[in-house]
Amino acid sequence: MKPLAEHGTTARAKGRPATGVPGCPCPPCRRAENAYDKRRRFLNQTGRTLMVDTKPVAAHLRGLFAAGAGWTQLSAISDCSTSTIQNLLTEKTPQCRRTTANKILAIQPGDAIPEQRSIPALGTIRRTRALMAQAHSCKAISSACHIDHSTVTDLLAGRLNVVTLGLARRVDHGFRSLSQTSGTSARSRNRARRESWAPAATWDDDTIDNPDAHPEWTGHCGTDHGWWTHRQQQLPICPRCEQAHQQWLDERADLHPQERNKEMFRARAAAGRREADLAADARELFQHGADAEHAAARLGVTRPHLHQILKRHPAMEAAA
Fold first, then answer.
1. Structural domain range at position 81
2. DSSP 8-state assignment for residue 21
3. What is the mean pLDDT of each run of 10 residues along the chain (320 residues)?
4. 189 and 242: one domain?
5. Beta-carbon neighbour count of residue 128 at 10 Å?
6. 241 CB-contact burial (10 Å; exposed 0-12 / middle 13-18 / buried 19+)
C-alpha cells in the first residue's frame, strides 16, 4: 500500500475514505486543511476554481495522440502518471485539477512523440542538401548531425522515404549550426549546383518540412521576374521560374521578334533595378533603427532573401 502523506499536509488531513483510512485530526493537519479550504473559497470567489471541466483536456489529449504522442513521453512532459492521463482521456470524472489541466494543455502536438517514431524524410533531406549547397562536405554534415556517413549519402540521394524522429532532430540541430556559415568543399558546391539544391537561406523554418513548399531563391520565384533574377545573380534556375518564363514566352509567341526582344530587355532591366532599390530601402530603414526582421516585413520579402539582396548589392561606400 502506498504510504500515507506526512503530517501537516491536506492529503493526511483528508485521509483515504475510499480505502477506510480516516483523516488525521492533529493540529498541523487541521491547519493545512483549513488553509486549503480558505484558498479554495478565495479562488472560487475570484473565478479561478481549483477544479475545471475535463472535456477540453480529454479533447486535447486525443489530439496529441493523433499527432503521434506516446504514453511514456506524455507522462514525463506533464509530470502526470499514465493512470491520470488514462482517467482524463476517458473522462472518468467530470472535473480535474486546474494545475493538471494546465500542464496537459501546455503540451503542443509533436512535443511528446517517441524518438523511434517514423516521420516523412522530406524535411531532413532538404536540410542535408541545403548544407551541401553551402559547400559543407558529407564528413562535416555527418559530424555536426551525429549520424553515419552512409545515412548522409542516402539522404542526399533521396533513398529514404521515412526517418526516425530522433534522426530528424539530430539533423535539424546540425542544420541550425552549420547553416550559419559556408563550407570549403568545392565538390559539394558543384554537386549541389548540378542538382539545383537550394541553400538554407531559401527555406523558411516553418515550411521546410511542408511537401507543398518551395525554396524561395529570389523573392519572386514562380514568376518571369524571378527567372531573370536567377540569371542575373547566376543562381541555379528553379523549376517554377523555368516554367513561368516559358509561359511568358508562349504568351508572346505571336509578337514580332523585335517587339518581343524589347519586352525581354524591359523585364531584365526591371529585375535588376528591383533588388538594388530594395537594398537601398533596407539600409535606410536600418539607419532609422529597424532590425532585419522588421525591414524584411516592411519591404514584403523574407529575412533570408533580404540578407541575400544586401550581399548582392553592397552599399556604394562599402563597394568603393
1. 51-113
2. B
3. 80 82 88 86 76 90 88 87 90 88 88 85 94 93 94 93 92 91 90 88 84 79 78 76 86 85 79 71 87 82 76 54
4. no
5. 26
6. buried
